[in-house]
Each structure stands twice: as C-alpha cells, then as structure tokens.
C-alpha cells in the first residue's frame, strides 16, 4: 500500500524492476515504464534499478526454441503457444516495438550475474535493457559471452570483466537473493515494479497507470511544467 508521503521537489526516486530476459510482458512493461517517466519534465530524478528474477531456474544452458521451452515446462501445443506469442507481438508492434517470434530460450542465470555487476557500476538497467531489446528484435544472442561483453562495452562497462564473471561463480548469491526479495515483496512472477519501496505494480501496466504511480510516489507535476 502507498504511504501518503511526498518527496521534496527534485529528490531522487528509485524504481526497481524485477524481470527476466525472455519474458515478453517484461519487454513491453519496461518500455511503457520508461515512456511514463519520459512524459514527466522531472524525468531525470527517477533512478531505474534492474533486479533479477529467474522465471525458470531449471532451464537448460543449451538454447532451444521458445516453443520447445514452453511445451517442455508447461505442456500444451506449439500452435497454442505461438498464437499467444502473436497476440503479444501485435501489442508490442502497436507500441512501436519490434518483436521477433524466432527467439531462442535458455538458462538466464549467467546473464543475471552480469546484471549484478552492471548494477554495481550504476548501469544495470541500461545493460539489461540493451540485451533484452537486442534479443526481442532478433539482433543479439544473449547466451553468447562475446555478445554480452560487447553490449557491456557499448553501455560503458568492461567487457573483460564480463568474461571473467561468466567464467566464475561471481554474483550467484545476489541473483538468488534478488528473487527471494522480490517474492517477499509480493512478486509471483514478472514484470514486478516497486516504486520508492512504497508501492508495487505487478504485471505489464499501461503507460497511464505507470504515470499515476509515479505521481503517487513523486508528486504531481504542474501543467505549467508539463507544457
């Protein structure tokens, strides 16, 4: 529940997003949240922090098609799964987002370990977002160490450090701790957004809803500032 406590004007507001790479609704929600923030003239006061939430910790490291992964985990048919994917694809495209159906699925634990390193450098959201966008447009293999290192360098991180992390077990405990904390805060899946540790928003909310939540935790902006 939201506490009716307002921040001093201009004070930083932290927004945490629990997400996983292959979650299509996370992809859509991330862009909706960013759009809601960008609609505010004080957008620079919001700090986005990526939190790790593996949807399927038992997923194999060897990539497989998204249909194979879904059927192996949930049952059903490829036709039913792809029909649902096409529905989400249509929603994403209406919002100007590319969305390929030819994605691969694999274990995301190693990616989340790199996200934790990126968080330490203040670039976790930027790194994850760039990887996820590349994945959903079909331009990036997120399971390839060289690809992750390349994205890391593109956002200002050390690609050599990424390779060292992937070759070790660094940040494993923090990935697991993130998921545990998300569940404790009420997450039953992702996307799960927590604003200022005062209000939680499960699921992919529409841009106006995110806008209302931003107003709740950061205060309204005057019409003069919006215009």
From TrEMBL:
<dbReference type="InterPro" id="IPR001853">
    <property type="entry name" value="DSBA-like_thioredoxin_dom"/>
</dbReference>
<dbReference type="Pfam" id="PF01323">
    <property type="entry name" value="DSBA"/>
</dbReference>
<dbReference type="InterPro" id="IPR036249">
    <property type="entry name" value="Thioredoxin-like_sf"/>
</dbReference>
<dbReference type="GO" id="GO:0016491">
    <property type="term" value="F:oxidoreductase activity"/>
</dbReference>
<feature type="domain" description="DSBA-like thioredoxin">
    <location>
        <begin position="14"/>
        <end position="210"/>
    </location>
</feature>
<protein>
    <recommendedName>
        <fullName>DSBA-like thioredoxin domain-containing protein</fullName>
    </recommendedName>
</protein>
């Amino acid at each position: 529940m939201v506490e009716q406590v307002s921040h001093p004007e201009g004070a930083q507001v932290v927004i945490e997003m629990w997400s996983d790479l292959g979650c299509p609704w996370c992809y859509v929600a991330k862009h909706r949240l960013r759009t809601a923030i960008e609609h505010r003239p004080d957008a620079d006061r919001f700090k986005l922090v990526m939190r790790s939430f593996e949807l399927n910790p038992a997923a194999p490291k060897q990539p497989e098609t998204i249909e194979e992964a879904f059927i192996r985990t949930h049952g059903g048919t490829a036709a039913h799964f792809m029909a649902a994917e096409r529905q989400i694809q249509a929603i994403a495209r209406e919002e100007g987002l590319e969305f390929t159906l030819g994605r691969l699925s694999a274990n995301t634990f190693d990616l989340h370990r790199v996200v934790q390193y990126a968080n330490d450098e203040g670039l976790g959201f930027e790194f994850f977002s760039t990887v996820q966008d590349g994945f959903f447009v079909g331009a990036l293999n997120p399971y390839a160490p060289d690809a992750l290192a390349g994205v890391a360098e593109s956002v200002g991180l050390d690609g050599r450090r990424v390779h060292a992390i992937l070759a070790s077990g660094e940040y494993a405990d923090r990935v697991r701790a993130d998921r545990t904390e998300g569940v404790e805060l009420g997450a039953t899946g992702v996307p799960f957004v927590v604003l200022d540790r005062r209000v939680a928003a499960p699921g992919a909310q529409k841009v106006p809803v995110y806008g209302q939540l931003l107003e709740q935790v950061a205060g309204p902006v005057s019409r003069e500032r919006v215009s």
